[in-house]
Amino acid sequence: MLAEISTAPAKGNDGETSTLQSSTPRAWFRYALDGTPPTRTRSCVDCGKSTLQPSIQLHAIAYKSGMADSTISKP
Q1: pLDDT at 41
Q2: 69 exposure class (CB count in 10 Å sphere: 0-12, 13-18, 19+)
Q3: Sign of the torsion angle spanned by Cα atoms 32, 30, 19, 23
Q4: Is 75 inside any structural domain?
């Protein structure tokens, strides 16, 4: 399983849009915004787009029941 984070400048502000995606259909994500590794039990849950300030250290991991966890991704 693969977790990918893509980033692009956000329109109308100083942040950037980060998109979490996986090659595995219906995977879900845990992410941390402080540079710490996300875990299955600690971190925020997401499955879409977020707008973040450039100084945020986003790390994410993809999960799906019955499959191995992805490696930790960062932009």
Answers
A1: 78
A2: middle
A3: positive
A4: no
**How many angstroms separate the CA atoms of 72 and 67, rounded?**
15
Residue 49: beta bridge partners? 19
Does some domain include residue 29? Answer: yes
Residue 35 belongs to domain spanning: 3-63
Q: Domain total for the chain?
A: 1
Q: Binning pLDDT at 50, 70 and 90, where does residue 14 land? A: low
Q: Is the pLDDT of residue 32 over 80?
A: yes
Whether the Cβ atoms of residue 44 and residue 59 lie closer than 8 Å to each other: no
Token digits of residue 39: 């875990």
At 37-62, the pLDDT tens digits run: 888 777 877 655 666 777 778 888 88
